[in-house]
Design a protein that fits this description.
Elements lengths: L6 H10 L2 E2 L21 H18 L12 H12 L8 E3 H22 L9 H13 L1 H7 L5 H8 L4 H15 L8 E6 L2 E9 L8 H4 L5 H18 L3 H19 L11 H4 L1 E3 L1 H7 L5 H8 L7 E3 L2 H10 L5 H16 L5 H15 L7 H12 L1 H12 L2 H23 L6 H12 L2 E5 L6 H5 L11 H17 L21 E3 L4 E5 L14 H17 L21 H19 L2 E2 L2 E2 L6 H18 L3 H14 L2 E3 L1 H10 L5 H10 L2 H7 L20
Parallel strand pairs: 4-6, 7-9
Antiparallel strand pairs: 1-8, 2-12, 3-4, 5-6, 8-9, 10-11
Length: about 700
């Protein structure tokens, strides 16, 4: 997962509701995951892959007492997982992280070469920006001297506010210029869910810090307590004395718990019927009766729109009730901390350490990365498209793209067959679903035109008065200006929101498109030297998973044009919900590290996983060797290790089921799995036919 650059970008991800297959969102604060085991290099990767395809036929002698009939995931992956020891700096290992580390290391070599280069590069080139930004990132003395520097006047405007109107105005100015959002005034500009050819303004919800799931969780209060200590320490570094910081922390906790009590759950945020709430300016004024809405919108630079979309109405009502004079100091303290937290990793040594220590404690990490590694990752995070162009030039294969395109066409055609055989769907609805498949846009590799933000982003070196924080603020302003420039223009569906070096794949319901960045087209997910079955179980399964998102519990509510439009009959929707409920109940039975899977939270991804295995096994049909290759490769690709704390984080926040469950639960509901491995009622992987689940079977 990318580190948080700014609240705007996070909000955009939530509004788009991109459904990613793997690591996006799994490693907050961790750009990559590495092990201290050199045998997870590409050569060993290949050796392991070759052994996997036969492992489920009983040839994995390393598995010893393990039986594939009882635990397919462990049986296939035991050899690999026994070799991997989580480094003290990591909370999680999987292939997404491993490949991300490889990509990042390649980019690091470029940074090192440029940092050591005495040449001066032309202003605005990728070389100039990378070289000068890395100097800003790595110059600790400059960062310590600058402190909050360019941000301080804006923070002072919050701290010095003498009334709620002044406070709201200060927040709106920050949001309008940089995208900072804390309590009120946060927004993003994205495609209108009801008319995906147009852009709309979405009024975003408050920053709930550690999150509703932790704040209200029965087993997470230990982490909440740690986070409150973090708030106290951050405010102390900001300049508050011990008593002031303690009182401010108490006030922030009170507001936080109050706000979270009226906030949608993570799974509810994916339901457009709950998040797509259209308001006129007058209606918005009624919702925020304690705010001068017209003035706020003008300061945000989004005034004059016919409609505004409120993502969380109940939370907005709660926030409005809190915007009263008696809460002024608490509100100012809340927004102060949010800003400090948003920029902590770009600040002085103390802010960086406090931020890093908190993340480490939350994810069960016992040792921080070295400074150079942190600086390298931060440089890559802040210049994603510049590094993207470099990656494509050096690593993208047109032949691989063409091969994957053929596989995508095959998978889309098979989904048509699967849809046609659903006896609970009317012929008219089947044709609409097939039309959605036929019009689905496919993006592979990298964009034909690089985003405007790439050239808009300029880096000022230290020698010219620049600093890390000042350049970060420029980056945030560029994102805002780029976003504002879209208002009133038709949507350009050729644009990419994902960089080519991203190790992931995703489906975007508003564009009805699947996206496969260049970097995921490599082993173990894809290898031209692998068997067809292995590649179908690898990248083919990923493709089928993303296609299935077009018909998951959220994607199914959008038509072929990307518009929020319930195109099912009432009877079909009822049947769909019944099938969905059975999936929820099915996954609720699974547990890992003593904790239950949340079937509601993971429903969308579980639907996509189940649909993918149906599609892949349907393509292969009765070819036992190819099915063995596919199932083995799929299981191998989801191999992972986690700290207990990080697994707790995933169970509370991740829309994916834990990787082991993604393998075993899916295969246990796949009829072809039983046929080729002769799974019996006494086996651990066995699920009775009437209890096997899926929307698309």
């Amino acid at each position: 997962m990318k580190k948080k650059l700014l609240a705007l970008l996070i909000a955009m991800q939530l509004v788009i509701q991109l459904a990613g297959c793997g690591d996006a969102g799994r490693q907050p604060g961790r750009q990559q995951s590495q092990t201290n085991n050199e045998e997870t290099t590409s050569n060993t990767q290949k050796d392991n892959q070759e052994s996997v395809v036969s492992s489920a036929n009983g040839q994995n002698t390393d598995a010893q007492e393990l039986r594939y009939q009882d635990d397919y995931y462990e049986f296939v992956n035991k050899r690999l997982l026994d070799k991997i020891q989580l480094a003290a700096t990591d909370a999680h290992w999987d292939w997404f992280g491993e490949l991300n580390a490889m990509v990042s290391s390649e980019m690091e070599e470029i940074i090192k070469e440029l940092a050591a280069d005495t040449n001066t590069y032309e202003k605005g080139t990728s070389e100039q920006k990378i070289k000068d930004l890395y100097e800003c990132v790595s110059n600790v003395q400059n960062r310590n001297e600058i402190g909050l520097g360019p941000l301080k006047p804006h923070m002072d405007s919050i701290r010095n506010a003498q009334s709620i109107p002044e406070y709201v105005d200060a927040l709106a100015k920050l949001s309008g210029e940089f995208g900072f959002s804390s309590i009120v005034g946060g927004y993003t500009i994205m495609q209108d869910k009801a008319d995906s050819n147009q852009y709309a303004v979405y009024m975003m919800y408050a920053d709930t810090l550690i999150g509703k799931e932790y704040i209200e969780g029965e087993n997470t209060q230990e982490y909440v307590s740690m986070y409150l200590d973090y708030i106290d320490n951050m405010l102390g570094e900001f300049g508050m004395n011990e008593s002031e910081a303690e009182n401010a922390t108490d006030s922030i906790e009170r507001l936080l718990r109050d706000i979270c009590g009226s906030t949608l759950t993570k799974e509810q945020l994916y339901d457009p019927s709950l998040t797509y709430n259209v308001f006129t300016v007058n209606e918005l004024q009624q919702l925020y009766s304690n705010v001068d809405v017209s003035k706020m919108l003008k300061t945000l630079r989004v005034d004059g729109q016919d409609k505004y979309i409120v993502m969380d109405v109940e939370q907005a009502k709660k926030i409005n009730s809190l915007l009263v004079e008696e809460n002024l100091q608490a509100l100012k303290d809340y927004s102060t901390f949010v800003m400090l937290n948003d920029v902590a990793e770009y600040g002085n040594e103390t802010y960086v350490k406090l931020h890093d220590d908190m993340q480490n404690a939350l994810y069960g990490i016992t040792e921080s990365w070295g400074n150079e590694k942190i600086w390298m990752n931060l440089t890559q995070d802040l210049l994603p498209w510049d590094f993207g162009t470099i990656y494509v030039e050096e690593h993208f294969s047109q032949a691989d793209k063409e091969d994957v395109e053929q596989m995508i066409a095959q998978i889309l055609k098979e989904y048509e067959v699967i849809i046609q055989r659903q006896d609970w769907m009317s012929e008219a609805t089947k044709q609409k679903a097939i039309r959605k498949l036929e019009t689905m846009q496919v993006k592979i590799g990298y964009p034909d035109q690089w985003p405007k933000a790439k050239d808009m982003m300029q880096v000022t070196p230290i020698s010219e008065g620049g600093s890390l924080l000042s350049n970060v603020l420029v980056s945030m302003n560029v994102a805002i200006e780029d976003s504002l420039s879209q208002l009133g223009k038709p949507v350009d569906r050729s644009e990419w929101d994902v960089t080519p070096q991203t190790i992931n794949a995703m489906y975007d319901p508003l564009n009805n498109e699947i996206i496969f960045p260049a970097a995921i087209l490599q082993a173990p997910f894809y290898d031209r030297n692998n068997s067809d079955g292995a590649n179908l179980g690898g990248i083919g399964y990923v493709i089928a998973h993303e296609v299935s998102h077009a018909f998951d519990s959220s994607g199914a509510l959008y038509d072929e044009y990307g518009n929020y439009n319930v195109w099912w009959t009432d009877e079909e929707m009822q049947k769909y919900q019944e099938l969905s409920k059975s999936i929820v109940n099915y996954y609720n039975q699974y547990e890992i590290m003593g904790s239950k899977v949340n079937g509601e939270l993971t429903l969308m991804e579980n639907i996509a996983d189940l649909g993918a295995i149906t599609c892949i096994s349907s393509i292969i049909k009765d070819d036992r060797k190819a099915l063995d290759d596919a199932f083995g490769q799929m299981a191998y690709n989801w191999a992972c290790k986690d700290t207990e704390s990080f697994m707790m984080y995933l169970l509370n926040t991740d829309t994916h089921s834990p990787n082991k469950i993604r393998v075993n639960a899916v295969l246990s509901s796949c009829d072809a799995f039983y046929e080729i491995y002769d799974i019996q009622e006494t086996d651990g992987m066995y699920v009775a036919p009437e209890n096997r689940v899926g929307i698309w079977r």
